[in-house]
Amino acid sequence: MITIKPKIPFKIYTFDSVDSTNNICKELALKGEKTAIVIADSQTQGKGRLGRSFFSPQRTGIYMSLLLRPDISPKDCNLITTAAAVAVSDAIDTISGKNTLIKWVNDIYLDGKKICGILCESGFSNNDGALDYVILGIGINLFTPENSFPDELKDIASSVFTKSVNDSDIKRKLIEEIINNFLLIYNRLPDKEYMKRYREKSFLTGKTVSFEKNGVQCTGVVADIDDDAKIIIQTSSETVTLFAGEVTLKF
Ligand code: BTN
């Protein structure tokens, strides 16, 4: 197991295998731990957004969750997701020399394929409904899995590196870079300065996408992403602003 030394102290838990690092973080949060970082070599029940699973085979990826206690309103939780997307994308670029992009809201893409997903889960106080904790889960396909990706992912998923060279060293460097990048942004979250970088790295801006609005399938061109991370799409008849959901690239 690797030893991580982020510049800002956080208690770090490392495991060979867990069901989900987000679940371990939740247990820590409910036991009263203030902040923590949980890292595993593999996950047996890695969770993705929208109830999907996240493929988490042994050694080839980074599966990491941060337990945070941000002093923000629940409606601003998506700032953490978008800040993390910038931190991770920049960290991957620095360590790999590649040029990753962010697909709204929180997927990282390399050469048109997904290499990283981010899942934020929040907990609220029973007393007053205030935000109690946020768990920021980051899953990166670092190396191509030994038996490649399962059939359902082959066309849409990729990895940062095709071969596993000196794997624990690269993993450690990348994890440290992500944590350091993220905490720098996190400490200045409300100024939304990082959204400039998010827009520079936007994979979808200028592209034609399909999306669902009020149960109807629509098509439009992505015009911009605003400071609240809402995506602005121009259809043939109107400008649509979406806060959450999924947009799909149309070729
Ligand atoms: C997605 O692509 O939909 C989000 C994937 C998030 C995966 C990470 S891996 C670490 C953390 N633990 C989980 O179970 N999920 C997140």
Question: How would you explain this protein's 3D organization?
Answer:
By secondary structure, the protein is an alpha+beta fold. Helix 2 (77-96) crosses helix 5 (194-200). A seven-stranded mixed sheet has the order 1-2-3-7-6-5-4, sandwiched between helices. Strands 11-10-9-8-12 form a five-stranded antiparallel sheet, with no helix packed on it. It is 24% helix and 32% strand. It is globular, with a radius of gyration of 18 Å. The chain contains five helices and twelve strands. The mean pLDDT is 92. The protein binds biotin.
Layout of secondary structure:
Elements: E1 12-18, H1 21-30, E2 36-43, E3 61-68, H2 77-96, E4 101-103, E5 107-110, E6 113-124, E7 131-141, H3 151-154, H4 167-186, H5 194-200, E8 208-213, E9 216-225, E10 231-234, E11 239-242, E12 247-249
Parallel strand pairs: 1-2
Antiparallel strand pairs: 2-3, 3-7, 4-5, 5-6, 6-7, 8-9, 8-12, 9-10, 10-11
This protein binds biotin.
Biotin is lined by residues 20-22, 43, 46-49, 52, 54, 63-65, 117-119, 137-139.
